[in-house]
């Protein structure tokens, strides 16, 4: 049966009004589409909105993961949008969450997005029909749930909502307090306590550094091959992975043991899309969202795109690049490859990852050193403007320093000179 040609489709649904959703909305509108973004929160900004809200029951879901005192681990010079950078008058490069939120509000103001955003409107279900998408929206204000119909769907719901908590022997018998970083807000609750922090990624290092200012002692458990510098923290001791918990502490994989009153799991998040019906054609196994072409286009239903799955990337620029990439096809300027071609490319890319020793589904969307190749692939394939080399050069300069040089890292101040060059001085 014939379907509407892609270039004649006009209606775009954007799920979420955070950094990715705002970008998808803005670019869709500029392309001439009829676009609307649905945000279940009371304001735009997604993960950058701070809230002290805690779950009221085991079934209650808290959206925000933001904690007090957070400063970005990337400089603002690489966190803006290509056509809307941060104000260069802000002296610091590593800004606080409130400044990021103000920036996103300014972006929405500048591009007149507010009239196209529905706050406190939650997407409950998305399912494909013969020629479009049926999207059920719950209006929290009116307490009504109604279906709407769209030609394209951008999934921009973020992935900092569902905690990924490891299954470690003895967790059930441990009598202290256990908390995932998703619900960490401020260090006050740890005053004069011994605390175990699991994970030495960006959040683990940062939260350990916050907690140690009030705690009696902090144990930082991780399996990094190179130990980060914690000498400046004083009361922080690094430990290997936990072998098993005891009633009042843990035994670690080197045979040592410690006692503590609190555990904070800085162990990442689960990619989850609860509003998508099974016939959307997407499955998620250990954070591997598949099958996707170029980490964003739903191969089984190509008029749906996921924005923001890759990690260890330039987040805002990646979102913008993915949206502009997909719009080249949604506007009819370019024709998508066949399903068979997209599947073959996906299998080839994943095969390369596994052959490089990355046979771990949780790393299926990890970019790191691959990010620059990924950016160029999107730009070259669709004929869109590449990310400016200066952004990539700054990223290379920042490489993992937010873990290994945390004591001095945020004292750096970057200034972009031109499309390729920058300066880096200390505040």
TrEMBL record:
<dbReference type="InterPro" id="IPR036188">
    <property type="entry name" value="FAD/NAD-bd_sf"/>
</dbReference>
<dbReference type="Pfam" id="PF00743">
    <property type="entry name" value="FMO-like"/>
</dbReference>
<keyword id="KW-0521">NADP</keyword>
<keyword id="KW-0274">FAD</keyword>
<protein>
    <recommendedName>
        <fullName>Flavin-containing monooxygenase</fullName>
        <ecNumber>1.-.-.-</ecNumber>
    </recommendedName>
</protein>
<keyword id="KW-0285">Flavoprotein</keyword>
<comment type="similarity">
    <text>Belongs to the FMO family.</text>
</comment>
<dbReference type="GO" id="GO:0050660">
    <property type="term" value="F:flavin adenine dinucleotide binding"/>
</dbReference>
<keyword id="KW-0560">Oxidoreductase</keyword>
<dbReference type="GO" id="GO:0004499">
    <property type="term" value="F:N,N-dimethylaniline monooxygenase activity"/>
</dbReference>
<dbReference type="InterPro" id="IPR000960">
    <property type="entry name" value="Flavin_mOase"/>
</dbReference>
<dbReference type="InterPro" id="IPR050346">
    <property type="entry name" value="FMO-like"/>
</dbReference>
<keyword id="KW-0503">Monooxygenase</keyword>
<dbReference type="GO" id="GO:0050661">
    <property type="term" value="F:NADP binding"/>
</dbReference>
<dbReference type="InterPro" id="IPR020946">
    <property type="entry name" value="Flavin_mOase-like"/>
</dbReference>
């Amino acid at each position: 049966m014939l379907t509407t040609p892609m270039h004649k489709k006009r209606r775009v649904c954007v799920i979420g009004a955070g950094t990715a959703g705002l970008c998808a909305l803005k670019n869709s509108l500029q392309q001439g589409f009829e676009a609307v973004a649905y945000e279940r929160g009371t304001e735009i900004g997604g993960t950058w909105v701070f809230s002290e809200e805690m779950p009221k029951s085991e079934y209650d879901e808290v959206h925000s993961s933001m904690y007090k005192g957070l400063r970005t681990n990337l400089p603002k010079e690489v966190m803006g949008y290509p056509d809307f950078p941060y104000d260069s008058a802000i002296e610091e490069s590593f800004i606080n969450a409130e400044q990021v939120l103000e920036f996103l509000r300014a972006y929405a103001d500048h591009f007149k997005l507010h009239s196209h955003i529905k706050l406190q409107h939650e997407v409950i279900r998305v399912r494909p029909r013969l020629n479009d998408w049926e999207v059920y929206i719950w209006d929290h204000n009116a307490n009504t749930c109604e279906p709407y119909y769209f030609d394209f769907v951008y999934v921009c719901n973020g992935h900092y909502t569902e905690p990924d908590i490891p299954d470690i022997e003895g967790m059930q018998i441990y009598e202290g307090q256990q908390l995932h970083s998703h619900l960490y807000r401020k260090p006050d609750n740890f005053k004069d306590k011994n605390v175990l922090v699991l994970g030495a990624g960006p959040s683990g290092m940062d939260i350990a550094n916050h907690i140690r200012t009030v705690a009696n002692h902090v144990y930082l458990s991780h399996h990094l091959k190179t130990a980060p510098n914690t000498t400046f923290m004083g009361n922080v001791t690094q430990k290997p992975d936990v072998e098993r918990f005891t009633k009042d502490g843990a035994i670690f994989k080197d045979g040592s043991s410690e006692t503590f009153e609190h555990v904070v799991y800085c162990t990442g998040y689960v990619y989850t899309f609860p509003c998508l019906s099974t016939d959307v054609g997407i499955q998620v196994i250990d954070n591997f969202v598949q099958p996707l072409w170029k980490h964003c286009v739903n191969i089984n239903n190509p008029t749906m795109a996921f924005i923001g799955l890759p990690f260890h990337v330039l987040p805002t620029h990646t979102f913008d690049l993915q949206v502009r990439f997909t719009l080249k096809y949604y506007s009819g300027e370019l024709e998508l490859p066949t399903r068979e071609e997209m599947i073959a490319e996906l299998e080839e890319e994943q095969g390369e990852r596994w052959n490089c020793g990355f046979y771990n589904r949780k790393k299926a969307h990890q970019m790191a050193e691959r990010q620059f190749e990924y950016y160029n692939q999107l730009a070259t394939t669709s004929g869109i403007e590449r990310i400016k080399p200066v952004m990539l050069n700054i990223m290379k300069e920042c490489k993992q320093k937010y873990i290994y040089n945390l004591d001095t890292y945020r004292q750096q101040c970057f200034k972009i000179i031109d499309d390729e060059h920058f300066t880096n001085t200390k505040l």
